[in-house]
Amino acid sequence: MEGFNLFMNSLKGFSISSAIDVLVVSIIFYKGYILIKETRAEQLLKGVLLIFLLIPISEFFNLTMLSWILSNTITIGVITIVIIFQPEVRKALEHLGRTSFVDKIIYEDEEVMNNVVNEIVDAVEALAKDKIGALILIEQKTGLGDIIKTGTKIDAVVSSALLQNIFVVNTPLHDGATVIKNDRIEAAGCFLPLTNNDKLNKQLGTRHRAGIGVTELTDCLTIIVSEETGVISLAVNGRLLRHYDGEKLKTILVKIMKSRNKNKETFKERVKRWIKRKDKTF
């Protein structure tokens, strides 16, 4: 009854701001669940909810020992969660960072973007034809500075000939990833994090797992050429799309990069545009 009376009293003070508060918190919880869905963190969340459910039950039945263990588990568990699930926490924070009011413009000149895509696709087609393995990262809104530091600095204009030369077998840089930023090849021979996705085809090797892994943590586009089969694949947002030809790869790259390159209108800019439109009406 005490809990019921408390609930009824809280309803009396329910206002518009309270409704907004509930709505915002609901959206945050929903977005959080979407981020951890089908990851290790989802199973952890179920375990935490079970513990929270058991605590009042143990107190109701006066199970002192169990109640003490569960309460202390929650206290220590928060720190443990942050340590164990650091990749998921980082992914969530980076996702929030990318949803800013002012988006980063990747390519100010669309012609430059098309030239870069053409050079990359030409190189990938040639490498696939000769069955030469390749791993190419195209930076988007999330910076790849920490990955660039693991490789050898190149800082050269993107060209098909240079990309092909980098991945020639038995050369010093052929076995790592090459990072492209805007119209420059920033670095080659870079190390990437491997994906922990255990649902991937077991036939996929380290190159594919590294290509998928980096797209789970950033919004970069990763092109992978299989050394065994010459199959061209594209990794985006933790998903691997396979069996591309040059024309199909070019089309999807341009489509994704154009959509991400659009500068989103901020709330302030929308208000200004609305005011101008109203001024013209009168």
UniProtKB/TrEMBL annotation:
Gene3D superfamilies hit by this protein: DNA integrity scanning protein, DisA, N-terminal domain (3.40.1700.10)
Gene transcribed to yield this protein: dacA
UniProt EC number: 2.7.7.85
Protein name per the record: Diadenylate cyclase
Physiological role: Catalyzes the condensation of 2 ATP molecules into cyclic di-AMP (c-di-AMP), a second messenger used to regulate differing processes in different bacteria.
Pfam family, one: DAC
A molecular-function term among this protein's GO annotations: diadenylate cyclase activity
The protein's assembly and partners: Probably a homodimer.
Family classification: Belongs to the adenylate cyclase family. DacA/CdaA subfamily.
Residue ranges of every copy of the DAC domain listed in the record: 86-246
Keywords on record: ATP-binding, Cell membrane, Membrane, Nucleotide-binding, Nucleotidyltransferase, Transferase, Transmembrane, Transmembrane helix
Catalyzed reactions per annotation: 2 ATP = 3',3'-c-di-AMP + 2 diphosphate
Matching PROSITE patterns: DAC
